[in-house]
Amino acid sequence: MSMKEFNALDGALLIDKPAGPTSHDIVDTVRQCYRIKKVGHCGTLDPAATGLLTLLLGKATKLSEKMMSDDKVYVGSMKLGETTNTFDAEGEIDETKPVPGLTLEALQEKANDFLGDQLQLPPMVSAIKINGTPLYKLARKGIEVERRKRFIHLYNFQITEYESPFAWFKVACTKGTYVRALAHDLGQALGCGAHLAGLRRTVSGKFKVSAATPLEELTTLSPDDLPRRVVPMLQLSAATES
Questions:
Q1: Any idea what DSSP says for residue 90?
Q2: What is the DSSP code string of 120-176?
Q3: Is 46 a residue of the active site?
Q4: Exposure string (b/e) for 100-137, b if CB count within 10 Å is 16 or more?
């Protein structure tokens, strides 16, 4: 396909997602605001999470599979001593335990055990489908089903700060990693339990959140301003091939 066949709105739109809306909500917002028929996203962010959400517009949606496989970087926080049914702060607390005396160094030592290749069990409250039904719909009915562990890789898992019961972290990982599950699993390894308290995606592939447009700003742009925010197909194709 010749680059001449692409228009100014064929490309990627980098959005700094606020807490609240779902990734699909934001796709709908952009589709309706700018009357673009084809809009998709490269990797879901939970409603409570913030940060980089990459939307693909027009003919760029054909690159979705390649870009979905990009590595990601997140920063966030977890609360020790409490587990929830969703593995994050949105769920109901199902167990509390006292937090042992821990140092930043001790936490980092446990976090290092999660580096490299591993199989991760996805949370029940997730969009993964079993026989065509998303797990979160089953979870709402109180149904728990057997999930298949998924292969992931952690390149880096750094505990950046600790003030009991909260720990702050940065993680670089492959696609499909549930950071909620990582926080839960670290809590289990520590013996006191934990859940994800906050999450922000800062990097996806070659793109950084510092280059993204806040959603509230995006919805005020004129149709003429929007193309200036779009990463063009030529640049996008180079990013997926290198």
A1: T
A2: E---SSSS-EETTEEHHHHHHTT-------EEEEEEEEEEEEEETTEEEEEEEE-TT
A3: yes
A4: eebeeeebbebbeebeeebebebbbbbebeeeeeebee
pLDDT tens digits, residue range 185-234? 999 999 999 999 999 999 999 999 999 999 999 888 887 888 999 998 87
- What are the distances in angstroms from CA 65 to CA 89, 168, 173, 205? 30, 31, 17, 13
CATH of domain 3-69+206-241: 3.30.70
Q: Kindly tell me if the per-residue pLDDT of 38 is higher than 70.
A: yes
3-state helix, strand, coil in the chain (%, to 5): 30, 35, 35
Start and end residues for every CATH 3.30.70 domain found in the chain: 3-69+206-241
- Residue 39: pLDDT band (50, 70, 90) is very high
| CATH architecture of the domain with range 72-203 | 2-Layer Sandwich (3.30)
pLDDT at 148: 82
Question: Strand pairing of 150-163 and 166-173?
Answer: antiparallel
More confident site: 221 or 182: 182
Out of 16, 25, 28, 46, which one is annotated catalytic? 46
Q: Among residues 49, 54, 88, 48, which one has the least CA distance to residue 71?
A: 54
CATH 3.30.2350.10 maps onto the chain at 72-203
For residue 137, pLDDT over 80 is answered with no
Contact (Cβ atoms closer than 8 angstroms) between residue 236 and residue 12: yes
